[in-house]
Amino acid sequence: MQKTMFNILIGLLVLFLTACTTQTDIVRQYIDPNISSKPHTLLAGEQIQITVFGQADLSAAYRIDDKGQINMPLLGSILALNKTPAQFADYIAFLLAQNFIRNPSVSVEVITYTPIFVIGAVKNAGQYAYIPGITAEAAIASAGGFLTGAMTSMVKITRRNTGRIFEANVVLETPLAAGDIIRVYGNMVTTQY
Prior knowledge:
Layout: H1 2-19, E1 47-52, E2 60-63, E3 69-72, E4 76-79, H2 85-99, E5 106-112, E6 116-120, E7 126-128, H3 136-142, E8 154-161, E9 164-171, E10 181-184
């Protein structure tokens, strides 16, 4: 009887200790194809420079509106959202070639990217400029680094891609995309949201 009670107490103690593990113990790393590095696609709020060679009145900076469109002379509203700059340049050239310009040559360059956001157990959570090639580690450094008690080996990235939201736990060397949200886990005392 005493041995049975002892085994039950040990079982309850193991169950209790298992339930008390921190969130950092259950976070796993995996490679999500939606989080892996891909060419940048245009997002609402970004400013782009469109150059139509030989057509100074069509060449200008445009801001992509909340609907993912720009308003361009001759063409009106054009959907830019989720196209790479090269795809969008080809699309504009196609539209111009339909009725306006013979063999147009068009380039599109991003001037201002959608910012990234660093939240959680960092010194200065907030919005930061996206720079192509930036990693999660560099973004965290921009945010002042980790707070004491932060999980320093892995972070969660939330990314919008073609209207869908993807989340993945990733290592710090993971390249970011414009608009990413980087969440650093930590204990309840140090985490800022």
